[in-house]
Amino acid sequence: MTIARVALPVAVDRLFDYWIPAGLDVACGAIVRVPLARRRATGVVLGISQESEVRREDLLAIAEVVDATALPQDVLELAEFVAGYYQSAPGLACALALPPLERAVPARDDVPLRLTASGREALAGALRRAPAQRALHERLAVDGATLSADEARALGPALRRVLARWREAGWVEEARPEGKGTAPRLNEEQRAAVDAILAASGTFAPLLLQGVTGSGKTEVYLAVAAAIVEGGGQVLMLVPEINLTPQLCARVADALPRARTVTLHSGLAEGARRANWEAAASGRADIVLGTRLAVFAPLPRLALVVVDEEHDASFKQHDGVRYHARDAAVWRARRRDVPVVLGSATPSLESHAHALAGRYRRLVLPRRADPRASLPAVRLVPARGPDVRDGISGALLAAIGERLARGEQSLVFVNRRGYAPSLKCPACGWQAGCTRCSARLTTHRAPPMLLCHHCGHRERIPPACPSCGNVDLAAGGHGTQRLEAVLAGAFPRARIARVDRDSTRRSGAFAAVREQVRDNALDVLVGTQMLAKGHDFPRLTLVGVLGADNALYSADFRATEHAAALLLQVAGRAGRAERPGEVIVQTDFPGHPLFAAVARHDYDALATAALVEREAAGLPPYSHLALLAAEAHRREDVGRFCARAHEAALAAAKARGGTVEVFPPVAAALARRAGFERAQMLLRSPRRGDLNAVLTALRGELAESRDRRVRWAIDVDPQSLA
Ligand code: ADP
Ligand code: ZN
Ligand code: ZN
């Protein structure tokens, strides 16, 4: 009897054996359906064997082979690496590599149509007796006219059939964007970067492409990708967020009109994602552009991996299998012997340290690529005091006014959505808090409510203080909605839009705002960090930053690094073309090295100083961290669980020779969330192998305990300890 060893998406640290019925063709990497505890589960075959530890009569049979396109060996190995490194069950890691099981549906084609020269000739004067067709022809015959996919769909069935006939006859064709294919002439540094990357072809080489925003990193990716695709290779390009994909996608299509590009991200419908996955797996796609999960895509001709904005925290998954897609990408590039380019204006301290140590080769683009563009001047102004009204300093208001007068655009950035982060009673000190979390409720105005940003709990804004009856409740602090209102009051004629998670919930909303900015239909944008990233707004010449000091109060060891990255990113939005930009940062600590470095656009100085601090404090990259997080409804249950975990970890650390420090369990910074009491325990070691061994032992112990009241997870390389 032949046995298949199957990884199933359950949090159990082993594979499951099934026998292979005659006639089923099952090999390693095959995706199969199997019976599992009275239901069906989908998994991946990781091994074939002639024997099993399970008794013959207890073995069940594989029900069905779902997929003939088996996962390739390197993807299976990547999943195995991720499971081992991030302390996850192998089946859960493999599940990340599974394609959507939906049938492939190519994404709806949204390409507009236009009349061809032959169509112009053939149809002119030929439709005298078909007024509807004639109208359609006339509509298309205008120079440069196109019919969008939406317009085509709205035509009605008869005309749609006509349109289809015209297409068949070659009278109408897809008006794909011209694909100028004309890249700008690369400058010397860009050229050197491209050459260095291409010279590494066919070998594993990690390269850190560091360049200020607008220095032309994307042009470097595109030039390299063009050469790779020309040579028959596939390029995997990872980006941090969905909302960046359409822009980059358009640039890829424009620069590489002949390459077949597909995207992979969770914003796609399952069927479309399946179609794109198949295109990647079959080798049909030349360029695969995707978020985190795309790192697991099968790529038979893979020749280059690019990770754009490599410092971005959204590459780390925050639940389930807590893997870091950048690190997984580097692992995969090594496994496949291909170069991997990590691009950023503000590299993570990890990558910065690798570059300093010579493990990554650093390629620098020191200035903005567009010779007309310069880096914006940065001004620091007080965040409090007589000049500040409604949270905005007079200097910033005046600067916005100047932009309005000149017909230029401004962006005001504050990293808080909602109206105000709190609601207080000035009379008795009452504060609106979440009943399910140890957190304050945020005041929202559009629509009006109190909302918990941790658990989603919402309630009505009380008309008076529930504790003393005072009717003058005060909203404290400034969120995006409040700033929008303040700016609308100050500049009644300005066209203002807000961009945050609330305003962009509807799909397409963000894209619509971007278009309005491009079409110069907006004067002021107010928003959260959604606005910080790679959007190119040529008329935007002023960026105001509020609440920048929050990072200085944060307990998170990466807070300054992230704040510097964010500030430099937002600053990068200002003055991209010939119009010089200005950045105004409101801070009460103008002497802080963070702001000094931002003012000089000198990320390296900051990173190097931060590394010194990290080394002194024994923090990454000078040590490796892992966090055990646990939560339960009752505090005693968490306490008991953590005490046992602590003991087990101490014993395992001792057995491993003592390089692993085990810190006592403590309450999490947010001690209660959604009704769960939360605690955590930190482990630290200068040696990755030791830490991993101790975690494996600890995980084994904890899995034994089967305490259903406690939910727990291990986070290796946590982004934050708070
Ligand atoms: P980054 O990815 O580093 O932010 P981009 O590649 O988006 O930079 O380039 C910023 C702007 O400069 C873009 O408008 C781009 O078209 C332009 N650009 C890039 N390289 C050059 C070059 N060599 N010459 C002129 N313009 C360039
Ligand atoms: Zn009160
Ligand atoms: Zn809550």
Query: How many DSSP helices?
Result: 21
Number of strands: 33
Strand content: 15-25%
Strand order of the largest sheet: 11-12-10-13-14-9-15
List ligands, each type once.
adenosine-5'-diphosphate, zinc ion
CATH architecture of the largest domain: 3-Layer(aba) Sandwich
CATH topology of the largest domain: Rossmann fold
Largest sheet: 7 strands, parallel
**The CATH class of the largest domain:** Alpha Beta
Low-confidence regions: none
How many separate domains make up the residues? Answer: 5
Q: What form results from the Cα inertia axes?
A: globular
Helix content: 25-40%
Mean pLDDT: 91
Estimated structural class: alpha/beta
The CATH homologous superfamily of the largest domain is named: P-loop containing nucleotide triphosphate hydrolases
CA-to-CA gap between the ends? 52 Å
Radius of gyration: 28 Å
Written account of the structure:
This protein is of the alpha/beta class. The chain has 5 domains: 3-97, PriA, 3(prime) DNA-binding domain (GIY-YIG endonuclease); 113-174, no CATH class; 188-365, Rossmann fold; 377-420 and 477-613, 3-Layer(aba) Sandwich (Rossmann fold); 624-716, Ribosomal protein S10 (Alpha-Beta Plaits), CATH 3.30.70.600. The strands form 8 sheets. Strands 11-12-10-13-14-9-15 form a 7-stranded parallel beta sheet, with helices on both faces. A 6-stranded mixed beta sheet has the order 5-2-1-4-3-6. The protein has a 6-stranded parallel beta sheet with strand order 16-28-27-19-26-25, with helices on both faces. Strand 13 (302-308), helix 11 (325-336) and strand 14 form a beta-alpha-beta unit. One zinc ion (ZN) is lined by residues 425, 427-428, 430, 465, 467-468, 470.
